[in-house]
Amino acid sequence: MDVLQTKQSAVAIVIGPPPEALLPEQEFVTTFLSVTLDVQGVSLQLVSWNEIDKDYRYLNLALDIALVRSR
After folding, report:
1. Coil/strand/helix, residue 13
2. I want to staple 49 with a disulfide (CB 3.0 to 4.6 A). Which of 4, 16, 35, 60 is the partner?
3. Please, what are the averages of pLDDT over each run of 10 residues along the chain (71 residues)?
4. Of 54, 55, 4, 65, whose CA–CA distance to 33 is shortest?
């Protein structure tokens, strides 16, 4: 979080927790990431672990970031 504030970033790209993580992905996102980033005014861009090798996900990510930056 300190890095986001220091760099004044409007977007955080997070790669979802691996399958062996103790915390399910949805709980990780809703409990920790969404609340923390929303308070800071930072847009969360999540790449799920099971989509890490899918090219379309990165195109979608780039488009989402472009939309955030145009606001």
Report:
1. strand
2. 16
3. 79 89 87 84 89 91 86 69
4. 4
